[in-house]
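User: I'm writing a tutorial on reading structure tokens. Could you give me a worked example: one chain, its sequence, then its tokens, then a sentence or two explaining what the tokens reveal?
Assistant: Sure. Here is the example chain.
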Amino acid sequence: MGLLVHLSVTETGYFFKGLGRKIEDPLIQEIIESADPQAEFLPPQEMTLADAIALYEATTKAVDVVLDGIALDTIIKVSWRKNGQATLERMLVHMIAETHRHAGHMDLIRELLDGFVGLYPEAPSIADLSEEQWHEQYQRVQRLAAQ
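And here are its predicted structure tokens:
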């Protein structure tokens, strides 16, 4: 849930605030204004998973509306850049990478919870190695990392 709230806040910050647009969602506005740097990763206690999913879906739809017809070379204000700005194109690529990275985090968590690794049981897309073979693979990776 925290990652969904984070992505919602991040997209709103870049594509609403960064473009000088009014932020409509009061929760997102509150989080953006919060002094707590981790606020966007801590959903409100009363928030449900369905609420977090709905927030993210509403955010992405609202961002699509805002960006419709805006040129890719449009400048967006971003505080973390040295010059305080980036093009819309750069920020779209940044958000794709950010979302992809966090989806990977969620996949790792799912793997830890359900023990399944790969695409699906019929085609796991991972080598069918014995415990001993996995240990050997681990040792090989460790040796490479130490070089």
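What the tokens reveal: The first strand starts at residue 75 and ends at 77. The longest helix spans residues 88-114.
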